[in-house]
């Protein structure tokens, strides 16, 4: 399959989980009606982004995989004949949880999962309290649409993650995401940050000759502790081609769906012209495993 239609669902989330899920189902159905074969949802889409605070009671939001969400969305995928990329709070064992992306095949079965590898711990993003780093590596998930290189949010900033997914055969890079401004920076700085967030992912597309699909949440979510003004999620979900060219993009506060056709065969054309994989100096990259270089920076 050389051309696929990819649907993206960008929405805000509230405290009513069932309403969030119902709205997601409407978005998925709308994408399918527009011809989407693959639909990508945002990070931790069932609920508000609960990592703004450290609250042990919120472990109650976690669920097993397979579990209620994979059953519900699996039935929807089977009904609509689409492949779905979900993002769930996975309960692996009592007190042991992951931030996990799950790919549902068009027959409703679980094609595979990816556990978020890079876990942030910053004001408003206290994910280390909830999530154990992933242990499944950077392995594409095999589907009827080809191997999908699914990563999650904070993984977006790491070229190593994108490179390893590409080296392991991914035909597209996919990032469910929940990122925005926490109000401590001025609007001008937040704009620069948002542009950098998109730019680095477009760079992964260029460096690996692969299309990228990123689906972020939108809207404002309050900080339950009241210690901050909450998060204004950036929205701006987008799809880019293998030279970083924007194929589709949401506005920051836009809710709804978009379906974009992606030409997977373009990777071959791009990589022939820009043969980065041919010219990689694998013999010279040993230092990448160090925390930092041998020469300490001047302070």
Walk me through what this model shows.
The protein has 299 residues and is α+β, with helices and mostly antiparallel strands. The protein has helices at 17-33, 68-80, 159-167, 187-208, 266-273, 276-279; strands at 3-10, 38-40, 83-93, 96-104, 110-115, 121-122, 125-126, 141-143, 146-150, 172-177, 180-181, 212-216, 218-221, 231-234, 238-240, 246-249, 256-263. The chain has a six-stranded mixed β-sheet with strand order 5-4-3-2-1-17. Strands 8-9-10-12-15-16 form a six-stranded mixed β-sheet, with helices on one face. Strands 11-14-13 form a three-stranded antiparallel β-sheet, with no helix packed on it. Strand 1 (3-10), helix 1 and strand 2 (38-40) form a beta-alpha-beta unit. Helix 3 (159-167) runs parallel beside helix 4. The chain is globular and about 50 Å long. The termini are far apart.
Backbone shape: globular
Helix content: 10-25%
Radius of gyration (Å): 19 Å
Our measurement of the CA-to-CA distance between the termini, rounded to an integer number of angstroms, reads 53 Å
Arithmetic mean pLDDT: 96
Widest sheet, order of strands: 5-4-3-2-1-17
Features:
globular; six-stranded mixed β-sheet; alpha+beta; 299 residues
Layout: helices, strands, pairs:
Blueprint: E1 3-10, H1 17-33, E2 38-40, H2 68-80, E3 83-93, E4 96-104, E5 110-115, E6 121-122, E7 125-126, E8 141-143, E9 146-150, H3 159-167, E10 172-177, E11 180-181, H4 187-208, E12 212-216, E13 218-221, E14 231-234, E15 238-240, E16 246-249, E17 256-263, H5 266-273, H6 276-279
Parallel strand pairs: 1-2, 2-3, 9-10, 10-12
Antiparallel strand pairs: 1-17, 3-4, 4-5, 6-7, 8-9, 11-14, 12-15, 13-14, 15-16
Helix pairs in contact: 3-4
